[in-house]
UniProtKB/TrEMBL annotation:
This is Small RNA 2'-O-methyltransferase. Residues 303-315 have a biased composition (Acidic residues). GO terms for biological process: methylation. Residues 288-302 have a biased composition (Low complexity).
Length: 525
């Protein structure tokens, strides 16, 4: 299996810093499926190409399978695994480029955070759905896609095309995002995984899909295929993705009976002790953790492995039915309804992300002035694209201000609004820095109203298979009592009153999934 990544960002050899693999070295990494090799076919100032070659040993795979695995005799030894990209390559990519996937680079941090001109090429990729599916999956991620079907036999064109495509992706994308796109979508296109799919696969999907999967138009198809069509896991993953900020979410479907994957056993093979175990059969468990805790190299290449569905073409019914029934939809509607009830005419969304709430505010003419601030330039770029900023009518464009900034630093651009919204933001701030956020929003900006929403950790027990917090970037999640205590203290310190209300289904035992505080400044302060 072969994957190449090229860049023309000068000096192009900085690609070695980002991948933590030196262009002058050939480095080998053992995999339970065979051997992964990283080398550079070209390494110049103008263009640099890194190649990941995975040599798979089908005999080793056959001998390592569990006793309970079906015996396909000759097909265990004669198959396409040594040649066609699959989940084996995705696992090797996750292992070898672990730190690059996490977006960490001590030597070139500004480069790791910036989009780069990239070209990714896979000469042979199983694609159950053909070139059209490859375009549907990659084009929404800002890639220009060239996908050509590989004929069964060039000497006999009447035989038609095989299920393989030659795929080339070009675009200006952050390298960490590109690697995570590949990690998730390679097994999705193949519609198969080589290892048992356990519940911890949901965590891996949520981590790798952060910032892009929740808003992807094919997110349901991607989730189902990635999780081997195990509907219970897919529903859990979709619910988790629904918590990642205020992106558009689909209403989750009613319970569907569990069905076996067409390419995996319906129960764990012999040797798996429980649902969280990966058997030794059919090679390794996928090392998809976002980081290994090791320091980044100060020069490229440290020689060590780095850390970090419906049928094809079937429409995404859940996505088509997206709306206020989804949690983020309910959250957004609750905020908009409250802003209207308060009589606000100018609103700033602090931590606006990809601009869903900003777009909803602009769609309502009563909001004559709309602001959006986020710490991430990439999020603001995506927001501008989603809002069609370049083609926005002048009258609407004059109402909008988008800018980059941090909530822990005073900024005069935050002032002058009737209301400020922090929707699923405070839980992403380290607790010691909450005091700075409080001073900036309630002490410096001092809008007439502040709306704050945050997850209710008590509700987490209602998410099947969820362990820990709802999102890997959450620094904390509060109970209802903890949020109420924080809100009351903030209001008292800065001359506000606060009213708390639930968002989403208010469970009689554990409360709502989201809790909202509406702060109103005392007229005398």
């Amino acid at each position: 299996m072969l994957l190449t990544i090229s860049t023309t960002a000068r000096p192009a050899t900085d690609l070695g810093f980002l991948l933590h693999k030196h262009p002058d070295r050939v480095q080998e990494f053992g995999q339970s499926s065979g051997k992964a090799t990283v080398f550079y076919p070209e390494a110049g100032e103008e263009r640099c190409t890194a190649a990941l070659l995975l040599e798979v040993d089908p005999v080793t795979l056959a001998r390592s399978r569990g006793k309970g695995s079906p015996d396909f005799s000759l097909s265990q030894y004669v198959n396409d695994r040594p040649y066609a990209a699959s989940s084996l390559l995705a696992v090797a990519l996750a292992d070898v480029f672990r730190t690059a996937r996490a977006g960490r680079c001590a030597a070139r941090p500004e480069l790791a955070a910036a989009p780069l001109p990239l070209e990714v090429r896979l000469p042979a990729l199983p694609c159950r759905g053909g070139p059209d599916l490859a375009r549907r999956l990659f084009e929404p991620l800002a890639w220009e896609v060239s996908a050509a079907a590989v004929p069964l036999d060039e000497g006999f064109p009447e035989w038609g095309d095989s299920r393989y495509v030659t795929l080339t992706l070009t675009g200006t994308v952050r390298l960490a995002d590109a690697l995570n796109h590949l990690y998730v979508l390679l097994p999705v296109l193949d519609d198969a995984k080589h290892y048992w799919i356990a519940p911890d696969e949901v965590d891996k999907l949520v981590r790798a899909g952060e910032g892009w999967l929740g808003a992807h138009p094919e997110r349901t198809l991607i989730t189902r295929r990635y999780l081997g069509r195990r509907w219970t896991l897919a529903r859990t993953a979709l619910a988790r993705l629904a918590e990642l900020g205020d992106e558009t979410e689909e209403a989750l479907e009613p319970a569907i009976p569990e069905e076996p994957s067409p390419t995996a056993p319906a129960t764990p093979p012999e040797g798996a002790d429980g649902p969280d175990e990966t058997p030794s059969a059919d090679v390794e468990h996928d090392p998809a953790a976002p980081g290994d805790g090791a320091p980044d190299a100060t020069a490229p290449g440290d020689g060590e492995p780095d850390d970090t569905a419906p049928a094809d073409g079937e429409p995404d019914a859940a996505a088509a039915d997206a709306g206020p029934r989804s949690l983020s939809g309910k959250r957004r509607e609750a905020v908009l309804r409250t802003l209207e009830e308060l009589g606000a005419t100018s609103v700033i969304d602090l931590g606006c992300g990809q601009g869903e709430l900003v777009g909803a505010l602009l769609a309502r003419p009563r909001f004559a002035r709309v602001g959006g601030m986020d710490v991430s330039p990439m999020a603001l770029t995506i927001a501008a694209r989603k809002l069609k900023l370049e083609r926005m009518p002048a009258a609407k464009r004059e109402r909008l201000t988008l800018f980059q900034g941090a909530l822990t630093y005073t900024d005069k651009r935050l002032t002058g609004y009737d209301a400020a919204v922090l929707m699923e933001v405070i839980e992403h701030v380290d607790p010691p820095r909450l005091a700075a956020l409080e001073r900036v929003v309630f002490g410096h900006a001092r809008p007439r109203h502040v709306l704050v929403t945050t997850p209710n950790i008590e509700y987490n027990v209602r998410y099947e298979f969820l362990t820990g917090l709802r999102h890997p970037d959450h620094r904390f999640e509060w109970t209802r009592a903890e949020f109420a205590a924080w809100a009351a203290e903030v209001a008292a310190r800065h001359g506000y009153t606060v009213a708390l209300s639930p968002v989403g289904e208010d469970d009689p035992e554990v409360g709502p999934p989201t809790q909202m505080g509406v702060f109103t400044r005392d007229q005398r302060s």
